[in-house]
Specification:
about 180 residues; mainly beta; six-stranded antiparallel sheet
Length: about 180
């Protein structure tokens, strides 16, 4: 009987999908080779830009990417009154991501928000890959000169498709360059 139960249990375990922290990465971008699957949305005020090293404006932005300091990241350039600030919006959208067949999901990323007039970084989700955007996380103001990681729970969206976006809104002057790197779903 023990062998029969063990054989049945083994058969069941072998039929289940593999569970690993890395086996089910659906979307991963470190921006080393471009924008990956992400695109600048139309209809906003400014674009996200790919860069390495520091941002062009002193007193804002990182000195390098999250992992090595010499790689690439995406950022909003807030220079020039009326063009880059105040309250200028930059939207970066993911491709459509299929969350069917999963019981949980999360969206993680690293951000850098160093600058005296820092605006707001929003992480938003559209169920069904379009239409209505739901703000799942946001952060405003100067967060210091180091990178920080954030994770957004996407469990409410499993079973369907989603599209993700970063919506950055610049602050009151040029010291509001915000940055994202190492994005993963």
């Amino acid at each position: 009987m023990y062998q029969l139960v063990s054989a049945a249990l083994l058969a069941l375990l072998l039929s289940l999908p593999a569970v690993s922290a890395w086996s089910d990465v659906l979307q991963s971008d470190d921006f080393e080779s471009g924008f990956g699957g992400w695109t600048n949305a139309g209809g906003d005020d400014i674009d996200w830009t790919r860069a390495s090293g520091g941002t062009p404006s002193s007193g804002t932005g990182p000195s390098g990417d999250h992992t090595t300091g010499s790689g690439f990241y995406l950022f909003t350039e807030s220079s020039t009154n009326g063009t880059g600030f105040p309250d200028k919006e930059a939207i970066l959208e993911s491709p459509c991501i299929d969350l069917s067949g999963y019981v949980d999901a999360s969206w993680s990323f690293w951000y850098h928000m160093d600058g005296a007039a820092m605006g707001t970084l929003n992480a938003e989700v559209a169920a069904g890959c379009g239409g209505t955007w739901t703000n799942e996380w946001n952060l405003s103001g100067d967060q210091g000169a180091s990178w920080s990681q954030q994770s957004v729970d996407l469990t409410a969206y499993v079973g369907g498709n989603v599209q993700l976006r970063f919506r950055g809104v610049t602050g009151s002057n040029f010291t509001s360059d915000m940055t994202v790197d190492d994005v993963q779903v």
